[in-house]
């Protein structure tokens, strides 16, 4: 579990650092998939069924707000309806306007849900959306999910009636209108799905807001069971021919996605729950505190060690000016002269030390070898003809 928590923190940190690049890429991919799906399901206007146009529009959506994907998806679908029949496009426009007035009045921040719901229907996993919106949204999210269901069944009715509409003439406009309107209003499956999804959103929201342990897990399981029961009851009542196997697989996928959402949004440690009671002048407070499961992402600290720079000539080499470098320190040679008593006198070091007000330093005399080395705290002095390093 610690590894997963570290991965989550690293992922959050990566997203926060690169949000400026990641968000446009995600919007581009979503717009590309949605528009390609529309062209594949409808595709009546050949001018729009072009990968170059889809790429250009998707690139444009990546720099615009998320609602632009909804706008371009609606325009693409209306254009395909218009290529099929003007009457069909008029009906589609009226439906979109009604949904727009209802949707953006209440939950305009969830515009992308109206696009994702039909897309998930095409992928055969629409049951993910009501459970996910129950965990992340509010009871008003039931309206956005219901709008997405209406859009899907509108497009499904148009694509299913396209062969019949294409054989009708222009004088049969009334018949075309009646065909589409009856197909939408008489679609009992659509109303059953709307009821199931709306109730699921509300049930999941109410349970996950309760102050009980593992409320999110209970909410997602209860929502999945509620959704499945309503669909089965509707199938028995109206003979909808809903695939039981497909519904079960879709509900399992919904639980998996819901657990992923819970891990990133509501990961808590119920074993360390604390209950606190206190009061003030007006109220008594009973507080249940559940700590979040967090871990600090490991960070690597790189310590750079720079080698000591050497200045001057190489060690052990004497420059032309009479100076040489020993172990990274520049020293200066001092010429001494031999006197008859075996003692030596430093020509430069003594006068320098006296000028500084310090002791002349420590002298070592060697009458046998005829060499003299003066060691100072600040300077090393040697004979230029015969010297040795003292370190």
UniProtKB/TrEMBL annotation:
Keywords: Membrane, Transmembrane, Transmembrane helix. Residues 350-369 have a biased composition (Basic and acidic residues). Residues 382-391 have a biased composition (Acidic residues). Residues 326-346, 371-381 have a biased composition (Polar residues). The chain crosses the membrane at residues 20-39, 51-76, 82-104, 111-129, 190-207, 214-234, 240-261. Residues 301-391 are annotated as: Disordered. This is Uncharacterized protein. It comes from Candidatus Acetatifactor stercoripullorum.
């Amino acid at each position: 579990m610690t590894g997963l928590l570290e991965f989550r923190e690293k992922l959050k940190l990566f997203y926060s650092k690169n949000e400026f690049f990641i968000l446009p890429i995600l919007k581009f991919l979503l717009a590309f998939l949605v528009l390609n799906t529309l062209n594949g399901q409808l595709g009546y206007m050949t001018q729009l069924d072009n990968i170059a146009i889809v790429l250009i529009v998707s690139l444009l959506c990546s720099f615009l707000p998320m609602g632009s994907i909804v706008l371009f998806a609606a325009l693409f679908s209306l254009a395909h309806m218009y290529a099929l029949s003007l009457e069909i496009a008029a009906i589609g426009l009226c439906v979109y306007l009604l949904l727009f007035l209802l949707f953006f009045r209440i939950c305009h921040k969830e515009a992308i849900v109206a696009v994702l719901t039909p897309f998930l229907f095409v992928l055969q996993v629409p049951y993910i959306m009501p459970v996910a919106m129950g965990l992340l949204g509010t009871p008003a999210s039931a309206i956005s999910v219901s709008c997405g269901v209406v859009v899907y069944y509108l497009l499904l009715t148009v694509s299913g009636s396209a062969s019949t509409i294409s054989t009708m003439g222009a004088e049969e406009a009334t018949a075309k209108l009646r065909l589409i309107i009856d197909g939408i209003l008489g679609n009992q499956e659509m109303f059953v799905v709307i009821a199931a999804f709306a109730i699921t959103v509300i049930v999941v929201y109410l349970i996950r807001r309760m102050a009980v342990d593992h409320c999110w897990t209970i909410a997602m399981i209860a929502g999945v069971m509620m959704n499945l029961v309503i669909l089965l009851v509707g199938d028995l009542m109206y003979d909808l021919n809903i695939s039981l196997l497909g519904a079960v697989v879709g509900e399992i996928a919904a639980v998996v996605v819901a657990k992923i959402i819970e891990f990133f949004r509501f990961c808590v440690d119920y074993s360390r729950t604390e209950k606190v009671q206190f009061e003030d002048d007006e109220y008594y407070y009973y507080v249940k505190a559940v700590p979040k499961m967090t871990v600090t992402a490991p960070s690597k600290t790189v310590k750079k060690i720079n080698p000591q720079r050497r200045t001057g000539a190489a060690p052990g080499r004497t420059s032309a000016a009479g100076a040489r470098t020993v172990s990274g320190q520049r020293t200066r040679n001092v010429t001494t002269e031999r006197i008859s008593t075996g003692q030596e006198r430093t020509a430069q070091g003594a006068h320098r030390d006296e000028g500084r007000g310090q002791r002349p330093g420590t002298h070592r005399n060697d009458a046998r070898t005829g060499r003299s080395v003066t060691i100072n705290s600040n300077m090393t002095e040697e004979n230029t003809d015969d010297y040795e390093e003292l370190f």
